[in-house]
Specification:
Keywords: Membrane, Transmembrane, Transmembrane helix. The chain is built from one helix and no strands. The longest helix is centred in the middle third of the chain and has 27 residues. The mean pLDDT is about 90. It is mostly helical. It has a domain of about 25 residues. The chain starts with 11 loop residues before the first helix and ends with a helix.
């Protein structure tokens, strides 16, 4: 690994997209549980 290599972290937009997908996944899971409880 050279000192001139770029940092091994995803760009900001990818990190925000991943966070948004994670929140959407939780929201979807909670919504599915609520639907099953209502049925």
């Amino acid at each position: 690994m050279l000192w001139s290599d770029p940092a091994d972290e995803p760009p900001e937009e990818l990190r925000t997209t991943q966070a948004m997908l994670r929140r959407a996944g939780w929201l979807l899971a909670v919504a599915m549980v609520a639907v099953f409880l209502l049925l």
